């Protein structure tokens, strides 16, 4: 499926198109053309680096939502072994907007959970565009409890616009399901590592994000509300979303400076949507590092440090 380049990516795409044309000019080895190709490739890398080094918060929102970014099942396939997906909340139904199950990370048994969006219209309808219903959060809660019972570390991957705000979801206890997840995660005595891979939208993201370590990809976002929703409330006009994105401090860089997250994971030049393999390598290195550190903690220390981490968010001292 061809994806339209984002507005600020157009110069990159134009240069890449020229590169393709140069490469197709001749099949024979031509020193002059080889030199031009090498110079153009170098120029493309410089333009990419410059564009992505200077993204505004509003532009980062677009990158975080890019449909070619890796999703949870992509990370599971690349970083984990022997994944077995578990379904259902044992109360109502299975919610495809959240996937989870048992697996192995670096040879060690674990539980992995994350939001899952779709790649096309059919998949997005099935996955509800990555917006979980209460049963999705209750499925996650079931997996949290299982991990705690069998002493398995938990890895969560966050990428959602937010919890589904439909009438049915509210009738089935959306707010209670999210609150219950926060309650249960706060009390777990196993390591929890969370990665914000795309959008981290409000309580719908936080419901699986109370990690001992919270990591963010370089161009992902994490906020209490979407810029469009914020603009609609504050200015009664969604067109103010760029201004809202600035005010929300939703970028990984903002959140690291505020101590909301623990580490920013570098994305390959040009963003995760352009280089899945490079992204997987960077994420795996970060997960291995933090997992190694957390394995040194006792169950009580895991509980206490997680508690203190979230208690300290938003605390200001004169």
Automatic annotation (TrEMBL):
Residue intervals of the CoA carboxyltransferase C-terminal domain: 32-293
Pathway involvement of the protein, from the record: Lipid metabolism; malonyl-CoA biosynthesis; malonyl-CoA from acetyl-CoA: step 1/1
GO cellular component: acetyl-CoA carboxylase complex
Broad EC category: transferase
GO BP of this protein: fatty acid biosynthetic process; malonyl-CoA biosynthetic process
Keywords: ATP-binding, Cytoplasm, Fatty acid biosynthesis, Fatty acid metabolism, Ligase, Lipid biosynthesis, Lipid metabolism, Nucleotide-binding, Transferase
Localization per record: Cytoplasm
EC number(s) stated in the UniProt entry for this protein: 2.1.3.15
GO molecular function, one term: acetyl-CoA carboxylase activity
Principal location: cytoplasm
Coiled coil: none
InterPro entries assigned: Acetyl_CoA_COase_a_su, ClpP/crotonase-like_dom_sf, COA_CT_C
Reactions the enzyme catalyzes: N(6)-carboxybiotinyl-L-lysyl-[protein] + acetyl-CoA = N(6)-biotinyl-L-lysyl-[protein] + malonyl-CoA
Family classification: Belongs to the AccA family.
Subunit details: Acetyl-CoA carboxylase is a heterohexamer composed of biotin carboxyl carrier protein (AccB), biotin carboxylase (AccC) and two subunits each of ACCase subunit alpha (AccA) and ACCase subunit beta (AccD).
Protein purpose: Component of the acetyl coenzyme A carboxylase (ACC) complex. First, biotin carboxylase catalyzes the carboxylation of biotin on its carrier protein (BCCP) and then the CO(2) group is transferred by the carboxyltransferase to acetyl-CoA to form malonyl-CoA.
The name this protein goes by in its record: Acetyl-coenzyme A carboxylase carboxyl transferase subunit alpha
Species assigned in the record: Calditerrivibrio nitroreducens (strain DSM 19672 / NBRC 101217 / Yu37-1)
């Amino acid at each position: 499926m061809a994806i339209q380049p984002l507005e600020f990516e157009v110069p990159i795409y134009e240069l890449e198109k020229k590169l393709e044309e140069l490469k197709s000019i001749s099949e024979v080895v031509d020193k002059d053309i080889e030199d031009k190709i090498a110079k153009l490739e170098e120029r493309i890398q410089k333009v990419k680096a410059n564009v992505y080094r200077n993204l505004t918060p509003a532009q980062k929102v677009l990158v975080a939502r890019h449909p070619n970014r890796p999703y949870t099942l992509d990370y599971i396939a690349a970083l984990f072994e022997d994944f077995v997906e578990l379904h259902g909340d044992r109360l109502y139904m299975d919610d495809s907007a959240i996937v989870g199950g048992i697996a192995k990370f670096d040879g060690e048994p674990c539980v992995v959970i994350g939001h899952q969006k779709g790649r096309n219209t059919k998949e997005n309808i099935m996955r509800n565009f990555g917006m979980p219903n209460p049963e999705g959060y209750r499925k996650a809660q079931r997996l949290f409890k299982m991990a705690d019972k069998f002493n398995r570390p938990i890895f969560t991957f966050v990428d959602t616009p937010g919890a589904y705000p439909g009438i049915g979801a509210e009738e089935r206890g959306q707010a209670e399901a999210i609150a219950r997840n926060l309650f249960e995660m706060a009390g777990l005595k196993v390591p929890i590592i969370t990665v914000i891979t795309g959008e981290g939208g409000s309580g719908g993201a936080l419901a699986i994000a109370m990690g001992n370590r919270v990591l963010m990809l370089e161009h992902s976002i994490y906020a209490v509300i979407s810029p469009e929703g914020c603009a609609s409330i504050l200015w009664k006009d969604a067109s103010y979303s760029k201004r809202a994105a600035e005010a929300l401090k939703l970028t990984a860089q903002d959140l690291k400076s505020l101590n909301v997250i623990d580490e920013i994971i570098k994305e390959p030049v040009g963003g995760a949507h352009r280089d899945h393999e490079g992204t997987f390598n960077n994420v795996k290195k970060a997960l291995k590092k933090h997992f190694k550190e957390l394995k040194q903690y006792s169950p009580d220390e895991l509980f206490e440090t997680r508690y203190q981490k979230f208690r300290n968010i938003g605390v200001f001292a004169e």
